[in-house]
Each structure stands twice: as C-alpha cells, then as structure tokens.
Write a structure and sequence with these properties.
Layout lengths: L4 H4 L2 H12 L4 H8 L3 H10 L1 H8 L2 H17 L3 H11 L1 H4 L3 E2 L8 E2 L3 H6 L23
Antiparallel strand pairs: 1-2
C-alpha cells in the first residue's frame, strides 16, 4: 500500500491497521508492517482521527466488546446467544456432550439446552421475566 499516509486513510488501509491492532499487534509492529518508524505512526495518529480510531481498539478491548454484545443478546432472550455463551464459557458443564457423574459405564447424556432456554422455570426463573427467579416479585409500575 505504500508508506504515504493517504494510502492508509482508505477503507482498506484502516481495516488493515484496525485488524492488526485487534489481533494483538503493538504500535511498533504495525509501523513495521506499514514500512514506517514508530514515531511516524504516532504522528499520523495525532494528525488523523481515523488512524487514531483504528489504533484504539486492541485485542483485549475487542474481545470484551464482543463478549458484552453476546451477553446483551443473551439477556434479550436470544437462544443461540445463550447456547454459544454457555458452551464456550462453561464447556465442562454446558458442552454438547457431557458425562454424568455416577452414571453406570460413563454413558454420555445429552442436555437439551434449547428446552432450558425456552423454559424459564427450568432454568430457575419464574416465567414472568428471564432475569427473575423464584421468590422475586414482579411489580408493574
């Protein structure tokens, strides 16, 4: 793409910079990939808001943003988001196949996650609202 800032202010250039940053590359790594020094990239960052934005979201921040979006979808009752969250955050408990302790011969039991997701009482909810549990009161104000 070249070492002139204009070539990096394009949609493609900014996508590359943002992608490198999200995958964990540091400022020095990105400057090297562009073919410029770290100081030059820091100048570009100060002078161009688009480059500043592209460099702002690092790997950890991106992971937390995706995690938060997935969590919000699960709170909204998105069954696929529930399933994804539980299977990936707690695979020992919610994986597709789990072996029930004490089961003769270690036979695998399949837990019907969709049934639990669609049945708030089965997951400990009261049925009035997904976030409510037995004993909570529902106050219509």
């Amino acid at each position: 793409m070249g070492t002139k800032v204009e070539s990096w202010l394009t949609r493609e250039g900014l996508a590359l910079i943002a992608g490198w940053r999200r995958q964990g590359d540091g400022i020095n790594d990105i400057a090297e990939k562009i073919g410029i020094g770290q100081e030059k990239l820091l100048e570009w960052r100060k002078e161009h808001e688009d480059i500043e934005r592209a460099l702002t979201i690092d790997r950890e921040t991106a992971n937390f943003m995706v995690e938060d979006a997935l969590f919000q979808k699960s709170l909204a009752g998105d069954a696929k988001a529930y399933e994804f969250w539980l299977k990936h955050r707690m695979p020992e408990k919610w994986g597709k196949q789990s072996v029930t302790e004490g089961n003769e011969g270690g036979r695998a039991d399949y837990f019907d996650l969709a049934q639990m997701i669609n049945n708030p009482v089965a997951r400990g909810g009261c049925g009035a609202h997904p976030a409510m549990t037995m004993g909570d009161t529902y106050d219509k104000k």
